[in-house]
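Note on ligand handling. Small-molecule inputs were canonicalized before submission; formal charges were left as drawn, and no protonation-state enumeration was performed. Where a ligand contained multiple stereocentres, the stereochemistry in the source SMILES was retained. For fe (ii) ion, this procedure yielded the string shown in the input block below.
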Amino acid sequence: MGRATLADIKGKDLSALAKETKTNTGDTNKVSNANKNRNNTSDSRGKKSRRRHGKMIMPAAVLVSPVQRLFDTCKDVFALSGTGIVPTPDKIEQLRAVLDEIHPANIGLTPRMPCFSPPSYQRAPPITYLHIHECEKFSMGIFCLPPSGVLPLHNHPGMTVFSKLLFGTMHIKSYDWVVDVSSNASAVVTPSETVQHPAVRLAKVKVDSDLTAPCNTSILYPADGGNMHCFTAVTACAVLDVLGPPYSDPEGRHCAYYYDYPFTKLSVDGVTVPEEEKDKHAWLEEREKPEDLVVVGASYTGLEIVEK
Ligand SMILES: [Fe+2]
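Structure output:
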Protein backbone atom coordinates (compact mmCIF):
# COMPACT_ATOMS: atom_id res chain seq x y z
CA MET A 1 0.00 0.00 0.00
CA GLY A 2 1.20 3.44 -0.78
CA ARG A 3 -0.45 6.28 1.04
CA ALA A 4 -3.56 6.14 3.14
CA THR A 5 -5.08 7.47 6.30
CA LEU A 6 -4.47 5.53 9.47
CA ALA A 7 -8.11 4.49 9.26
CA ASP A 8 -7.86 3.32 5.65
CA ILE A 9 -5.03 0.90 6.22
CA LYS A 10 -6.85 -1.12 8.86
CA GLY A 11 -8.28 -4.34 7.50
CA LYS A 12 -6.33 -4.39 4.24
CA ASP A 13 -3.90 -7.07 3.19
CA LEU A 14 -1.21 -5.73 0.94
CA SER A 15 0.69 -8.37 -0.90
CA ALA A 16 3.76 -6.20 -1.46
CA LEU A 17 4.48 -5.94 2.20
CA ALA A 18 3.13 -9.33 3.04
CA LYS A 19 6.03 -10.66 0.95
CA GLU A 20 8.47 -8.66 3.01
CA THR A 21 6.85 -9.81 6.19
CA LYS A 22 6.87 -13.39 4.99
CA THR A 23 10.59 -13.30 4.37
CA ASN A 24 11.17 -12.06 7.84
CA THR A 25 9.17 -14.43 9.90
CA GLY A 26 12.10 -16.55 10.92
CA ASP A 27 11.53 -15.60 14.50
CA THR A 28 7.80 -16.11 14.09
CA ASN A 29 8.46 -19.61 12.85
CA LYS A 30 10.80 -20.14 15.72
CA VAL A 31 8.05 -19.07 18.06
CA SER A 32 5.57 -21.35 16.33
CA ASN A 33 8.04 -24.21 16.42
CA ALA A 34 8.87 -23.46 19.99
CA ASN A 35 5.18 -23.63 20.78
CA LYS A 36 4.90 -26.86 18.86
CA ASN A 37 7.83 -28.24 20.83
CA ARG A 38 6.26 -27.06 24.04
CA ASN A 39 3.02 -28.66 22.96
CA ASN A 40 4.85 -31.87 22.10
CA THR A 41 6.49 -31.87 25.49
CA SER A 42 3.13 -31.14 27.03
CA ASP A 43 1.59 -33.94 24.97
CA SER A 44 4.18 -36.48 26.05
CA ARG A 45 3.80 -35.44 29.66
CA GLY A 46 0.02 -35.63 29.19
CA LYS A 47 0.29 -39.14 27.83
CA LYS A 48 2.38 -40.17 30.82
CA SER A 49 -0.14 -38.49 33.07
CA ARG A 50 -2.97 -40.27 31.30
CA ARG A 51 -1.16 -43.55 31.69
CA ARG A 52 -0.76 -42.91 35.41
CA HIS A 53 -4.22 -41.59 36.12
CA GLY A 54 -6.24 -42.90 33.21
CA LYS A 55 -7.34 -39.37 32.32
CA MET A 56 -5.55 -36.54 30.48
CA ILE A 57 -5.92 -33.01 31.80
CA MET A 58 -4.95 -30.39 29.20
CA PRO A 59 -3.43 -27.23 30.66
CA ALA A 60 -5.57 -24.93 28.47
CA ALA A 61 -3.96 -21.68 29.63
CA VAL A 62 -0.53 -22.89 28.46
CA LEU A 63 -1.83 -23.60 24.96
CA VAL A 64 -3.33 -20.15 24.38
CA SER A 65 -0.95 -17.80 22.54
CA PRO A 66 -0.60 -14.19 23.79
CA VAL A 67 -2.27 -12.87 20.63
CA GLN A 68 -5.14 -15.33 20.99
CA ARG A 69 -5.54 -14.28 24.62
CA LEU A 70 -5.53 -10.63 23.52
CA PHE A 71 -8.17 -11.34 20.88
CA ASP A 72 -10.39 -13.28 23.32
CA THR A 73 -10.06 -10.52 25.92
CA CYS A 74 -10.88 -7.79 23.37
CA LYS A 75 -14.02 -9.68 22.34
CA ASP A 76 -15.14 -9.63 25.95
CA VAL A 77 -13.96 -6.12 26.87
CA PHE A 78 -15.43 -4.50 23.73
CA ALA A 79 -18.60 -6.61 23.57
CA LEU A 80 -20.72 -3.45 24.03
CA SER A 81 -18.37 -1.23 22.05
CA GLY A 82 -19.72 1.88 20.34
CA THR A 83 -18.87 5.54 19.81
CA GLY A 84 -18.08 7.12 23.17
CA ILE A 85 -18.66 3.91 25.14
CA VAL A 86 -15.80 3.31 27.56
CA PRO A 87 -15.37 -0.21 28.98
CA THR A 88 -15.85 -0.52 32.74
CA PRO A 89 -12.75 -0.08 34.94
CA ASP A 90 -12.47 -3.82 35.62
CA LYS A 91 -12.57 -4.56 31.87
CA ILE A 92 -9.93 -1.89 31.26
CA GLU A 93 -7.68 -3.53 33.86
CA GLN A 94 -8.33 -6.96 32.38
CA LEU A 95 -7.13 -5.84 28.96
CA ARG A 96 -4.21 -3.88 30.40
CA ALA A 97 -3.04 -7.02 32.25
CA VAL A 98 -3.12 -9.08 29.03
CA LEU A 99 -1.18 -6.39 27.14
CA ASP A 100 1.39 -6.21 29.93
CA GLU A 101 2.20 -9.88 29.26
CA ILE A 102 2.86 -9.35 25.54
CA HIS A 103 6.48 -9.05 24.45
CA PRO A 104 8.04 -8.85 20.97
CA ALA A 105 9.49 -12.35 21.18
CA ASN A 106 6.18 -14.03 21.89
CA ILE A 107 4.39 -12.41 18.96
CA GLY A 108 7.09 -13.00 16.36
CA LEU A 109 8.42 -9.45 16.12
CA THR A 110 12.07 -8.46 15.97
CA PRO A 111 13.84 -5.11 15.43
CA ARG A 112 15.87 -6.86 12.72
CA MET A 113 12.86 -6.89 10.37
CA PRO A 114 13.46 -4.62 7.33
CA CYS A 115 10.45 -2.44 8.13
CA PHE A 116 12.46 -0.98 11.03
CA SER A 117 15.35 0.14 8.80
CA PRO A 118 14.85 3.57 7.23
CA PRO A 119 15.75 3.90 3.55
CA SER A 120 18.26 6.71 3.36
CA TYR A 121 16.74 8.34 0.26
CA GLN A 122 13.43 9.29 1.88
CA ARG A 123 12.95 12.20 4.23
CA ALA A 124 10.01 10.67 6.05
CA PRO A 125 10.62 6.96 6.48
CA PRO A 126 7.59 4.78 5.78
CA ILE A 127 5.69 3.25 8.66
CA THR A 128 4.37 -0.30 8.52
CA TYR A 129 1.04 -1.35 9.98
CA LEU A 130 0.72 -5.06 10.68
CA HIS A 131 -2.99 -5.75 10.66
CA ILE A 132 -3.98 -8.39 13.22
CA HIS A 133 -7.77 -8.14 13.36
CA GLU A 134 -10.64 -5.73 12.78
CA CYS A 135 -14.35 -6.11 13.38
CA GLU A 136 -17.07 -3.57 14.10
CA LYS A 137 -16.27 -3.67 17.82
CA PHE A 138 -12.48 -3.32 17.89
CA SER A 139 -9.26 -3.42 15.90
CA MET A 140 -5.79 -4.73 16.73
CA GLY A 141 -2.55 -4.02 14.90
CA ILE A 142 1.11 -3.13 15.26
CA PHE A 143 2.72 0.09 14.03
CA CYS A 144 6.37 -0.50 13.11
CA LEU A 145 8.37 2.74 13.05
CA PRO A 146 11.94 3.05 11.81
CA PRO A 147 14.12 5.67 13.53
CA SER A 148 12.69 9.17 12.93
CA GLY A 149 9.38 7.70 11.75
CA VAL A 150 6.45 9.91 12.70
CA LEU A 151 2.79 9.16 13.16
CA PRO A 152 1.55 12.74 12.93
CA LEU A 153 -0.90 14.32 15.36
CA HIS A 154 -4.27 12.61 14.91
CA ASN A 155 -7.41 11.92 16.92
CA HIS A 156 -9.47 8.90 18.04
CA PRO A 157 -13.08 10.14 18.07
CA GLY A 158 -15.27 8.35 20.61
CA MET A 159 -12.70 5.60 21.12
CA THR A 160 -10.81 3.95 23.94
CA VAL A 161 -7.29 3.12 22.77
CA PHE A 162 -4.63 0.90 24.35
CA SER A 163 -1.08 1.43 23.10
CA LYS A 164 1.65 -0.94 24.18
CA LEU A 165 5.23 -0.02 23.22
CA LEU A 166 6.80 -3.39 22.44
CA PHE A 167 10.39 -2.24 21.98
CA GLY A 168 12.41 0.90 21.34
CA THR A 169 12.08 4.52 22.43
CA MET A 170 9.32 6.78 21.22
CA HIS A 171 8.42 10.38 21.93
CA ILE A 172 4.73 10.89 22.64
CA LYS A 173 3.01 14.23 22.53
CA SER A 174 -0.69 14.11 23.29
CA TYR A 175 -3.54 16.53 23.92
CA ASP A 176 -7.11 16.65 25.14
CA TRP A 177 -9.59 19.34 24.22
CA VAL A 178 -10.15 22.05 26.79
CA VAL A 179 -13.89 21.90 27.21
CA ASP A 180 -14.58 24.69 29.69
CA VAL A 181 -13.65 27.41 27.21
CA SER A 182 -14.60 25.55 24.06
CA SER A 183 -17.37 27.96 23.12
CA ASN A 184 -14.76 30.65 22.63
CA ALA A 185 -11.80 28.53 21.64
CA SER A 186 -13.48 26.53 18.92
CA ALA A 187 -14.78 29.61 17.15
CA VAL A 188 -13.22 30.81 13.93
CA VAL A 189 -10.49 33.22 14.93
CA THR A 190 -8.18 35.62 13.24
CA PRO A 191 -4.68 34.86 14.42
CA SER A 192 -2.13 37.53 15.10
CA GLU A 193 -0.19 36.34 12.07
CA THR A 194 -0.92 37.33 8.49
CA VAL A 195 -1.50 33.69 7.54
CA GLN A 196 -5.18 32.80 7.50
CA HIS A 197 -6.14 29.88 9.74
CA PRO A 198 -9.68 28.53 9.24
CA ALA A 199 -10.32 27.49 12.83
CA VAL A 200 -8.36 26.55 15.88
CA ARG A 201 -9.40 24.96 19.12
CA LEU A 202 -7.72 25.07 22.50
CA ALA A 203 -6.16 21.85 23.77
CA LYS A 204 -4.16 20.93 26.84
CA VAL A 205 -0.98 18.88 26.72
CA LYS A 206 -1.45 15.51 28.39
CA VAL A 207 1.91 13.86 27.67
CA ASP A 208 5.12 15.26 26.19
CA SER A 209 7.86 12.77 26.93
CA ASP A 210 9.95 9.84 25.74
CA LEU A 211 8.74 6.34 26.46
CA THR A 212 11.16 3.40 26.45
CA ALA A 213 10.11 -0.25 26.47
CA PRO A 214 9.49 -2.12 28.66
CA CYS A 215 6.88 0.27 30.02
CA ASN A 216 3.24 0.43 31.01
CA THR A 217 0.46 0.30 28.46
CA SER A 218 -0.87 3.79 27.63
CA ILE A 219 -4.64 4.21 27.56
CA LEU A 220 -6.58 7.10 26.08
CA TYR A 221 -10.31 7.77 26.27
CA PRO A 222 -12.83 9.73 24.19
CA ALA A 223 -12.44 12.87 26.31
CA ASP A 224 -9.18 12.42 28.22
CA GLY A 225 -5.92 10.53 28.48
CA GLY A 226 -4.53 12.32 25.40
CA ASN A 227 -7.11 11.57 22.68
CA MET A 228 -5.03 13.42 20.07
CA HIS A 229 -1.49 12.15 19.86
CA CYS A 230 1.69 12.15 17.81
CA PHE A 231 4.32 9.40 17.91
CA THR A 232 7.93 10.09 16.91
CA ALA A 233 10.38 7.20 16.85
CA VAL A 234 13.58 8.09 18.69
CA THR A 235 14.87 4.61 17.86
CA ALA A 236 13.22 1.89 15.80
CA CYS A 237 10.11 0.96 17.74
CA ALA A 238 6.89 -1.03 17.58
CA VAL A 239 3.53 -0.15 19.10
CA LEU A 240 0.69 -2.60 19.55
CA ASP A 241 -2.53 -0.62 19.17
CA VAL A 242 -5.99 -1.79 20.27
CA LEU A 243 -8.91 0.49 19.33
CA GLY A 244 -12.45 0.09 20.57
CA PRO A 245 -14.44 0.87 18.52
CA PRO A 246 -12.27 1.19 15.38
CA TYR A 247 -12.27 4.12 12.95
CA SER A 248 -15.40 4.20 10.80
CA ASP A 249 -16.37 7.04 8.49
CA PRO A 250 -20.04 5.89 8.19
CA GLU A 251 -20.33 5.91 11.99
CA GLY A 252 -18.66 9.32 12.32
CA ARG A 253 -15.32 8.10 13.57
CA HIS A 254 -13.10 9.75 11.00
CA CYS A 255 -9.36 10.05 11.58
CA ALA A 256 -8.50 13.76 11.60
CA TYR A 257 -5.00 15.25 11.53
CA TYR A 258 -3.91 18.48 13.19
CA TYR A 259 -1.30 21.19 13.28
CA ASP A 260 -0.44 22.34 16.79
CA TYR A 261 0.59 25.92 17.55
CA PRO A 262 1.97 27.22 20.84
CA PHE A 263 -0.67 29.00 22.90
CA THR A 264 1.24 32.27 22.70
CA LYS A 265 1.39 32.22 18.90
CA LEU A 266 -2.30 33.06 18.44
CA SER A 267 -4.57 35.37 20.37
CA VAL A 268 -8.23 34.59 20.73
CA ASP A 269 -10.66 37.04 22.32
CA GLY A 270 -11.95 35.86 25.66
CA VAL A 271 -9.53 32.95 26.04
CA THR A 272 -6.87 33.26 28.68
CA VAL A 273 -4.91 30.80 30.75
CA PRO A 274 -2.61 31.52 33.70
CA GLU A 275 0.93 32.47 32.73
CA GLU A 276 2.43 29.29 34.19
CA GLU A 277 -0.09 27.18 32.23
CA LYS A 278 0.57 28.70 28.82
CA ASP A 279 3.24 26.20 27.79
CA LYS A 280 0.84 23.38 28.67
CA HIS A 281 -1.72 24.60 26.15
CA ALA A 282 -1.78 24.72 22.37
CA TRP A 283 -4.06 25.61 19.50
CA LEU A 284 -4.99 22.71 17.26
CA GLU A 285 -6.04 23.25 13.68
CA GLU A 286 -7.41 20.40 11.57
CA ARG A 287 -5.41 19.72 8.41
CA GLU A 288 -5.35 17.37 5.46
CA LYS A 289 -3.54 14.08 5.87
CA PRO A 290 0.18 14.97 5.69
CA GLU A 291 1.51 14.33 2.19
CA ASP A 292 4.72 12.78 3.41
CA LEU A 293 2.93 10.25 5.63
CA VAL A 294 3.42 6.80 4.13
CA VAL A 295 1.85 3.89 5.96
CA VAL A 296 2.37 0.49 4.42
CA GLY A 297 -0.14 -2.13 5.44
CA ALA A 298 0.43 -5.85 5.77
CA SER A 299 -1.23 -8.79 7.39
CA TYR A 300 0.17 -10.05 10.63
CA THR A 301 1.74 -13.41 9.92
CA GLY A 302 2.58 -14.33 13.48
CA LEU A 303 0.62 -16.68 15.66
CA GLU A 304 -2.81 -17.56 14.38
CA ILE A 305 -6.08 -16.26 15.86
CA VAL A 306 -8.99 -18.66 16.15
CA GLU A 307 -12.48 -17.14 16.27
CA LYS A 308 -14.59 -19.23 18.57
FE1 LIG B 1 -3.27 6.82 17.36
